[in-house]
Amino acid sequence: MVKKVTKSKLPVVLFLIILSVAAFLRIWGTVNGNFAFTYDVGRDFLEIHKQVFLHDFSLLGPTSGQGGVFYGPWWYWLMAVPFFLLGGSPTGMVLVIVLSGLLAVTVAFFWGRRWENDNFALIMAGILGFSPFFIGATSQFWNPNLLILVTLLVLVLLSFAEKLNFKQLFIFGFLSALAIELQLFFGTFLFLGVLVCLIIFQRRIVFSKRILAFFLGALFIELPRVIFEINHEFLQTTVFFNTLGKNVTQQYDLSLRAKILLEFLSSVWPVYNLTMVFVFTLIALTVFVLIIKREKEREKKNFYSQIGLLLIMYFAATLFYKKDFWNYYLTGLPALLLIPVSAVLSKVLQKGKKWSIVGAFLFTMLFLKPADILQSIKEPKFTGDASVYRNQVEVVDYLYQQANGQKFNVTVYTPPIYSYTWDYLFLWYGQKKYKQVPDQKPTGLLFLVIEPDPGYPGRITDWLKTRQGDGAIKKEKAFPSGIIVQSRFRSL
Question: How far is CA 14 from CA 11, 85, 112, 281, 459, in A?
Fold first, then answer.
C-alpha cells in the first residue's frame, strides 16, 4: 500500500526533488565534458599540479584583475586536496564546484526552514537549484564561482551573529575574508559590509572580546599575503597604490552599469526581459522594506535590515564606481538577492495556506526549460567551440593517434597567447592515457594547433606566416569546434 506524503514530510520531499534535478542539471553536462576549459582554468590546474605533486609552494594565487595585484593562495590551497584525491582530473575538479553548488542548495533549505518557514526554504533552494545563473556558476571551475556557497554561509552566520561563540565567530571572519580572495571587488564590499552591519546592529559583539575571534579568522586568511608583502618589501601594496586611479581602460557608462546590475538581478527571476526584471525587483524590494518595518522579532528585523544595507552598498558601488568594472565582479550578488525575494514571495504565498508549499515549488519550476533539458539528454555532446573541454580532448587524442608512438612537437595558436589548457592536457591526459608528452627537443613531426580567433582572422594569417619555415604541411584537419590541426614534417 502506498502511503500518503504527510504535510510535514512534503517540504522535504519537494526539497529532495529540487536537489535531484539540480544535481542532474549540473552533473550531466560535466561528465559529458561540456564545460569551459579556458586560459584561467589551465593556468590554475598547472599551478595546483606544481604545488601538489612537485611541492613547489607559493604565497600567491591567481591574478586579481587589478594591475600588479594577485590573490592570496587560498583558492589553490582549498582545491589542493580534491586535486590530489582526484588525480588532477579536470572533470573531477569541476564536480567539486558542482558539489559546492549542491551544498548551497542544501544549506539554503535547512537554514530557511529554521529562519523563516518551508515556503522561504523551498524558494531559496529552488532558485539556487534551477536558475540558469546558479547552474552556470556552479558548473565551471573558477575562483569567483565559489562565492555562491561562501556568500550564503556568511549570510547564514550573520543572521545568527548575536548567538555565535568564539569558534563560530572565527569561522565567520574566515569566510568573510575568504570572499576577498575569491573576487576582490565583491569580497571587499562583503567584508566591509559585514563590519558595518556588526558595528550598527551588533554592538555587543563589537565592543567585547568576542570580536577578536572574527578578526583572527580574517587575519588567518590574509596571513599568507602579509608574509609575502613583508618578504618582498610590500611590493604588491606599493603597486596597488601607485596604480590606484590609473588602471582605467573602460569609459565609465552609467547605463551600461545599470544593464550589468539588471542582468544579475534577473538571476533570481524566471523572466528574461530586463524591464520586467526591474519592475519585479522594485516591487519586491518595496515589499521587503514593509516587511522590515512590520517585523516584530528583533533578530529578524535586524538581519533583514542588514541585508537591505548590503544591497544598498552593492547597488551604489556598481553604479558609481568609476574604475574598470567587469561582470564577474558581482558573482556573489545573486546569493544576497535570494533573501529579500524569498522573504517577499513566502509572505505572498502564505495567504494560500494549504497550497502555499506547492506554490513555492511551482514558482521555482518556472526557471526550468523542459525542451532544453530533453534536448541535452537526447544529444549530451553538443558541438560547442574551442573552449569546451571535450573538444580539446578530441584534438589531443587525434594528435597522439597521428603520431602513433613517434616523438612530436606541438605549437599552439590561441587568442590568449598562453596555451595553458593544452599544456595541462598533455601533462595530465597525455601522460595518463598515452604515457607520452610532446618532446621538448625539435622533432621531425610537428603539429600546429590553431584555435579560431573570432573577429581577428588576420592574426591567424600573420601567425602562420611566421611558421613558414616549420616544415611542409602533409595534412590538415578542421574539427567541428573550429580548431584546425596541421601535421607538418621537417628534416632536421
Answer: 5, 33, 14, 26, 53
Q: Has residue 174 been placed in a domain?
A: yes
As a residue count, the chain comes to 492
Q: Residue 288: which of 268, 269, 308 has the closest Cα? A: 308
Query: What would the grid cell of residue 69 be?
Result: 595585484
Of 124, 112, 97, nearest to 23 by C-alpha is: 97
Give 429's DSSP letter: I
Q: Is 386 exposed, middle or buried (0-12, 13-18, 19+ CB in 10 A)?
A: buried
Q: Residue 181: give the domain boundaries.
A: 10-376
Q: Looking at the 3D structure of the chain, how many domains does it have?
A: 2
| 406 in any annotated domain | yes
Among 376, 400, 429, give the residue marking a domain's end.
376
User: Dihedrals φ, ψ of 198, to 5°?
Assistant: -65, -40
Give alpha helix (H) positions in 298-388. 298-320, 333-350, 356-365, 370-378
Q: Around Cβ 294, how many Cβ atoms within 10 Å?
A: 9
Letter for the amino acid at 163?
K
Say whether pLDDT at 4 is over 70: no
User: At 454, is the secondary structure helix, strand, or coil?
Assistant: coil
Task: Give the single-character DSSP code of 371.
Answer: H
Per residue in 418-453, is it b (16+ CB within 10 Å) or e — as a string?
ebbbbbbbbbbbbeeebeeebeeeebebbbbbbbbb
Question: Is 384 inside a domain boundary?
Answer: no
> Looking at residues 254-277, what average pLDDT do you find?
92
Contact 187, 180 (CB under 8 A): yes
Would residue 327 count as lying in a domain?
A: yes
Q: Which residue, among 265, 394, 385, has the nearest Cα to 319 in the 3D structure? A: 265
Same domain, yes or no: 408 and 348: no
Count of CB atoms situated within 10 Å of the CB of 359: 19
Cβ proximity of 181 and 61 under 8 Å: yes
The pLDDT tens digits of the residues spanning 415-467 come to 989 999 999 999 999 999 999 999 999 999 999 999 999 988 899 999 999 99
CA distance to 29, 192, 297, 461, 479, per residue, from 22 (Å): 12, 32, 33, 44, 32
Dig out the grid coordinates for 215 from the structure.
578578526
41-56 pLDDT, tens digit per residue, is 999 999 999 999 999 9
Beta bridge partners of 410: 447
Neighbours of 255 (CB within 10 A): 7
Burial 263-285, CB ≥16 within 10 A → b, else e: ebbbbbbbeeeeeebbebbeebb
